[in-house]
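Exercise 7.
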Amino acid sequence: METHHGHDFYDRPDVFTYYVKFTSRKQTPSESIEKPIVLSLAGTELTGEVLDLGCGFGSLAKELLQRGATNYTGVDASRKMIAFGRAVVKDERAVFIQADINQWACPISSYDLVVSCSVFHYIEDLDTLLSKIYKSLKPGGQLILSVEHPLLSFFKNPQAIISYNEYTDKHLWETYDYFNEGPRIHAWMKARVVKFHRSIEEYWRAVTAAGFRIESLKEGRHEEDKLPIGGNYKLIMQGPMFLIMKAVKAFD
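Solution. The predicted structure, written as tokens, is:
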């Protein structure tokens, strides 16, 4: 089984096709938990420039523009994601840029809101990226980020886990040292993906060390009667799936 880092994984034809099909389902955790919380934190009356880091194919673009954003800029390293985003988001206010967010030079003091969904757990040097994001925001600008919840990323032997069925059917909820932070190899979609495990405390430290003031923290609480998720996710849904934060850049 090959081991991949973020964007090269999503550029695999089999992975990209499956991912687009999977995320189009409204009952997935990302669509029914993560996205509604992120949009709720963003609010219904946006103004100004929005930057979406690790945007994928721009699944947030239409909603953010409908909520009043002046312009939307999506940045992602995956050429397939960017090409698909340009094809499906038919709005002249939306711009898609193919670039590694670790290397891309964010314009200084240019954005009113930066969003990044399920991306930071792929980033090794999070401090440098957060510092860059802070500088890219206007005074009073906001950052909304979501990551895979740390309780889902500290498995003892992730290489042995093939799918969510393995978690539920074989009860492989073995864990390894929550505070031992760093890369963990997760098996997903018949490949191995490198993610970086961090504690909630470490995410809090990194965000505030960059200069942000955290205003809200959510753990992806779901309402069972409103969330038609079962099967593979039945056991997982008993706990949190995402860590979602809203932070504000202090006025300089």
